[in-house]
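Next up, sample data.

:::
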Amino acid sequence: MRTLELTADQGGERLDVFLARRVEGISRSQAQRLIERGLVTVDGAPARASRIVRPGEAVAVHLPDPEPVSVEPEPLPLTVLYQDEEVIVVDKPAGMPVHPGPGHPRGTLVNALLARFPELRQVGEAFRPGIVHRLDKDTSGLMVVAKTPRAHRHLVEQLKERQVRKTYLALVYGVPDPERGVIEAPIGRHPRHRKRMAVVDEGRQAVTRYRVLEAIGGYALLEVEPVTGRTHQIRVHMAAIGHPLVGDAVYGRRSPLLPRQFLHAHRLAFILPGRERAVEFESPLPADLRQALEAVRRGERA
């Protein structure tokens, strides 16, 4: 990790534009990702990508270690629910990171995809070929992967225009009141714990819809739909309203019933690139979450 200190001489431009112009090798989209991850500050404080930089302000950029430039294929188990010449729909297991990064250079979804679909090397970024959206390492469920550059552009645009619908199943502590609602609270990097996200005034807009499917004593099974796509959005929003996910050691507490947060990407709907036809896929709860849910129904404490 290295830090660059920059001074805005004239100011008057967006922070992401300023970084792309002043830091060699960083595009505007890369600058936006650094800002979203809390790796950019202005006069010592986190800032939005849209913030206008003023003359004399100090902009600090914490550049992470370089991402791997190539990913090796690995013949790992991979559940493919659908594929055509443009896209792949996979059911990602819990415990598998989506792409390589610090601490997990191998054993990722991308490694498994490349072993089965080597043509993905030509799609998107080198260290996450074909990837257009992500799931947390310990979140299971549905993802769509682009097989061609055209499909990648098409899916990225759908995500930007909020045409991709992602629906999750989550088990939370307590029963939300009202039982159907919308959470609107900006999310950004935690001001003290930089590896965590939080609801913060200077964060990016974040909107989550939820409804209670089943109230089970002091717990509730929810259907949750993130309208926006912020890092850890569902986990942060549910914790913010006092109903953290069962098993979420980062935003709630550990559970004796399972070693990860109870969160599963259950349903995924999007428009097939090149066909302009809407499709929808579903994935049932995996065994570990089913067992935890049944235990709660029997009255065991999570």
Observations:
- Helices lie at 15-22, 28-36, 109-116, 149-160, 233-240, 287-297.
- The chain has six helices and 17 strands.
- The chain has a mean pLDDT of 91.
